[in-house]
Amino acid sequence: MALHVMNEANRCLGCKVPQCQKGCPIKTPIPEVIKLLKDNKLDEAGRMLFENNPLTTVCSIVCNHEKQCEGHCVLGIKGAPVHFSTIENYISSTYASKMVQGPHPSNGKKVAIVGSGPAGITIAILMARYGYDVTIFEGRDQIGGVLRYGIPEFRLPKSVIDDIQYRHLEMKKIKIRPNTRIGHAITVDDLFRDGYKAVFIGTGVWQPNALHIKGESFGHVHFGIDYLNNPDSYKLGEKVVVIGAGNAAMDVARTALRKGTRELTCFSLTKKVAASDYEFSYAKLEGVEFEYNKKPVEITDDGVIFKDVLEDENGNLTEVEGSEKLYPANSVIISISQGPRNTIAATTEGLDTNNRGLLIADETGKTTRPGIFASGDAVNGARTVVEAVAHSKVVAEEMHRYIQGLED
Ligand SMILES: Cc1cc2nc3c(=O)[nH]c(=O)nc-3n(C[C@H](O)[C@H](O)[C@H](O)COP(=O)(O)OP(=O)(O)OC[C@H]3O[C@@H](n4cnc5c(N)ncnc54)[C@H](O)[C@@H]3O)c2cc1C
Ligand code: SF4
User: Fold this and answer.
1) Which domains are assigned to the chain?
2) What mean pLDDT do residues 155-166 have?
3) CB–CB of 361/402 below 8 Å?
4) For 31-90, what is each residue's pLDDT tens digit?
5) Is 146 in the pocket of ligand 1 (CB under 6 A)?
6) How far is the first Cα of the chain from the last one, in angstroms, to the nearest whole number?
7) Burial 16-46, CB ≥16 within 10 A → b, else e
8) Which of 8, 34, 82 to probe ligand 2 with, by most ligand atoms within 8 A of CB?
9) Residue 197 bridge partners (DSSP)
10) pTM for the structure as a whole
């Protein structure tokens, strides 16, 4: 591993205008980090990574590197790019075990973080760095959001999230209230009543999008995001149809095959799947079959009836009448993205949502109600980990400025 990492590091040209960094949504200082590693300064390289991105270890594993840093590396034009993800993973996971710093000096002010996905964790860590007394309210029994309850263990080991909890939250004396869904027994107004100076909302998108077709309520039909939450509670059978072909659908398919399903086909409406090339190729390697240009029209006890669709070069789709065909399955999993649940907006006066139910917030995270900030999927819809973290860095700074009365 180390040899491989140094081989990769030694290939880096240390470009003056690093294209890799331009491709990275959180602007990781890639050539600087690689230089520190080559100079035998692993701890400094690790510190630089964590300063810039508290979820650097997670990002080194789950980011779409082929489209981001590695997809932009100049060496990729004629050959293989520098595999920075491998370098980042080695440095961040090695350095993480040395992070033993306790809490920062307190400034005596409380902030509340609702939701502990990538957005909430980032805000919590950054607000604690400013000295705030941070409490995280999480609806589930453990922290992590999609990192724990969506992305399967074979892609992102839960130990990575446990380590974040220990080193970044518990050691910094950040309080966590699990099993506490804000908007029910406790509302956002209760938080302000109790002295929190600002409230951050990073509740993500957990409402599965439905197809609204006949048969969707049958007992052998499930939603992908629900299945990934706890795959062991499902008995899918030998033959499974997955409706959808994005990254989440790939996670569903690959998990089901690991849990005993023998034949699994993902159905895509378009001829190009929405999943990243890596996820798609892993799924194919593991035996997932694909059907393209198929639109589900009805779910029966025996499977799913799909209709063919024609797709022109501009991506316009036309349904082919009379082409309906039953594709047999023991279970059907619908995985066509998620939308927000609106409990908090419904119970908080002045907190507005758009026509998709997403919280309205500007680029600095300010919502329509002063003192309430938001970022991540709850604002932008289903996106990526690194986008949630990058946005949250800006939002944490703005929350700090708001509380300290430093706004323009
Ligand atoms: C199956 C799947 C696979 C994915 N794979 C990748 C990937 O490989 N790479 C990538 O970059 N992105 C991936 N994504 C997207 C990425 O995980 C999300 O963009 C990211 O997690 C968004 O972070 P967030 O903090 O905004 O929300 P979330 O991660 O959704 O976290 C929100 C948290 O808020 C909590 N919550 C909700 N309502 C309340 C409430 N009322 N009170 C208290 N807590 C509440 C939830 O329980 C949850 O813990 C994937 C998404 C899915 C669904
Ligand atoms: S673009 Fe490639 S070669 Fe240039 S600094 Fe980035 S990783 Fe190194």
Assistant:
1) 2-96 (1.10.1060.10), 110-206+340-403 (3.50.50.60), 208-338 (3.50.50.60)
2) 96
3) no
4) 999 999 999 999 999 999 999 999 999 999 999 999 999 999 999 999 999 999 999 999
5) yes
6) 49
7) eebbbbebbbbebbbbbbbbbbeeeeeebbb
8) 82
9) none
10) 0.95
